[in-house]
Amino acid sequence: AWVGSLSMGMVFFCSPIVSIFTDLFGCRKVAVVGAAVGLVGLLSSSFLSTIEPLYFTYGIVFACGCSFAYQPSLVILGHYFKKRLGLVNGIVTAGSSLFTVSLPFLLRVLIDSVDLFNTLRALCILMFVLFLAGFTYKPLVPNTKDKEGGKKGKFKLPPAKKICNFSIFKVLSYRIWALGIPAALFGYFVPYVHLMNHVKERFGDSVPEEVLLLCLGITSGVGRLVFGRVADYIPGAKKIYLQVASFFFIGLMSMMIPLCNVFGALVAVCLFMGLFDGCFICIMAPIAFELVGAQDVSQAIGFLLGLMSVPMTVGPPIAGLLRDKLGTYDVAFYLAGVPPLIGGAILCFIPWVHERQKLKERAKPVDGETTEKMLEHESTLVLDMTEKPAKELDSGF
């Protein structure tokens, strides 16, 4: 369990570093190298017979490779799509829902038939496909390397301010977003981690618990497609209201889990939870593009994912500790619904703040040089207007 937890934490913890490399070298190189590193980590894990080395090969090497391959797949979409960016993100992220539904059943068959190590080798095929897919990324926005090197092709290390673009935190709306999302995630993942154990305690082995995972995966995929398309019709930073709604419903559904004394009611809760989970995930990149622009979106997403790694890692263990102390998951689920509600309330202020920022930028006075050029242009226009009537009189008109 710790190997898997370390792996998931590293995927998000490495995101700020990935964003810096994406800005320096572009989406294609980072994605290809990341997939290759992930392939090496997964393949080397399949030859180990003890668990200790897995902390490095699977928990660190494989996870870091996945992190380097994942983030460019979100950034590259903004290079090609503007009007339909929400729908495109929904289609792309729906792939993970498809595998959430199908992969557990496939893994069970593979492990039962060819054992764990050959299963890891079979999964290397997917990583190799990801390696090949990385070559299709053709960035349209120039990266930092291209800007610094110019046409000569010589790579000069850019200044530290350009490598770590902390200037995005000067954008107040982004700062609020980067605070609200992690605040909500302290309870967001608790149901996903502890739901199966709660079902076993409440209903025993008489219910098919895999159905809940199936419901979460299917409706999450549907939510990503539907809400991704809906986001395209919502102008500007108002897309954030979709995330507010998703946090509200996920917090509410978390609180309703202990109240479900019938398995069918728990299925309904999981259907709604998966739907709004898809909403939260698919519009993350479009919101980042709205708040900071296409040029800075890579590091904006990277810093956010890095901040997300802390509550994702801390929240579920706290819920497990509460269960050990109290003997039931009920209080843990009730408390897990509070952070998404608080995070959603924080995000409500972003559209108003973003609009005020835009108004301030429009109201800024132009610099002296621009003003001087404008005055020169106006003076030439006045001279032309006064000279034309004189010429017309001289010519006899």
TrEMBL record:
Keyword terms of this UniProt record: Membrane, Transmembrane, Transmembrane helix
Annotated transmembrane regions: 6-25, 30-49, 55-78, 85-107, 119-137, 172-191, 211-228, 240-259, 265-289, 301-319, 331-353
Keyword Transmembrane: yes
Membrane topology: Multi-pass membrane protein
PROSITE patterns: MFS
One term of GO molecular function: transmembrane transporter activity
Protein name per its UniProtKB record: MOT10 protein
Species this chain originates from: Urocynchramus pylzowi
